[in-house]
Design a protein that fits this description.
- The complex is a heterodimer.
- Chain A is an all-beta fold.
- In chain A, strands 2, 4, 5, 9, 10 and 11 form a 6-stranded mixed sheet that branches. Chain A has a 5-stranded antiparallel sheet with strand order 1-3-8-7-6, with no helix packed on it.
- Chain A is globular.
- The mean pLDDT of chain A is 95.
- In chain B, the strands form 2 sheets. In chain B, strands 2, 4, 5, 6, 9, 10 and 11 form a 7-stranded mixed sheet that branches. A 4-stranded antiparallel sheet of chain B has the order 1-3-8-7, with no helix packed on it.
- Chain B is globular, with a radius of gyration of 13 Å.
- The chains are: A mainly beta, B mainly beta.
- Chains A and B meet through strand 4, strand 5 and strand 10 of A and strand 4, strand 5 and strand 10 of B.
């Protein structure tokens, strides 16, 4: 059974305080690992897809990395508008996807 | 504008009354999927479709049906809704590793 575990569950940062979110996974036939941002009451917003160990992608203050067992979402010098729930999901060759429970990030000014 | 649309956005219904939630995408994506999101349980995949006339069960398919007769539409059908299907539902479409979600449908079954 595919499993995705995200940690921490919640993270509070001061503006400018960099940190990382973790997503560990076990999956048969990984096709890709997705990161999303979700604001309350809205659908997840796509951030990145990573396909193979060693791959990295960046977008503004966010950088996602992938190993064979986990992925990290690094947030550099976060701002209050980065406050959201960040979701990780794995997508298999069979077409199924499994989400983690998310990390709720709060950035205080 | 590239988008995934869902209708209705909000629905309150009663147990046993058949309903359909529509999902449409204008990006010509082959892959579409339905999820439900519940507090403490996260997003769980209900059904997915890798192309027209091809559908497969996700992790929680019981009580749901889908159809994919054309590429742009992927309706979710609840033949006999029950209170445990009260949830927030999302449709999504995917191409080349980018997955786009609809705005969600909040369903309450009394």
């Amino acid at each position: 059974e595919d499993q995705v575990t995200q940690s921490p569950e919640a993270l509070r940062l001061q503006e400018g305080e960099s940190s990382s979110l973790n997503c560990s996974y076990t999956v048969s036939g990984l096709r890709g690992l997705f990161w999303y941002r979700q604001d309350p009451g809205k659908g997840p917003e796509f951030l990145f897809t990573l396909y193979s160990a060693g791959e990295e992608k960046e977008k503004e203050r966010l950088k996602a990395t992938l190993t064979k067992k986990e992925s990290f979402l690094h947030i550099t010098a976060p701002k209050p508008e980065d406050s959201a729930t960040y979701l990780c999901a794995v997508y298999t060759n069979a077409g199924k996807s499994t989400f983690g429970d998310g990390t709720t990030l709060t950035v205080k000014p | 504008e590239a988008q995934v649309t869902q209708n209705p956005r909000y629905l309150i219904t009663v147990t046993g009354k058949k309903l359909t939630v529509t999902c449409s995408q204008n990006m010509n994506h082959e892959y579409m999927s339905w999820y439900r999101q519940d507090p403490g349980l996260g997003l769980r995949q209900i059904y997915y479709s890798m192309n027209v006339e091809v559908t497969d069960k996700g992790d929680v398919p019981e009580g749901y049906k889908v159809s994919r007769k054309e590429k742009r539409n992927f309706p979710l059908i609840l033949e006999s809704p029950s209170p445990n299907q009260t949830s927030l539902y999302f449709c999504a479409s995917t191409l080349s590793g980018e997955q786009f979600f609809g705005p969600g449908t909040r369903l309450t079954v009394l």
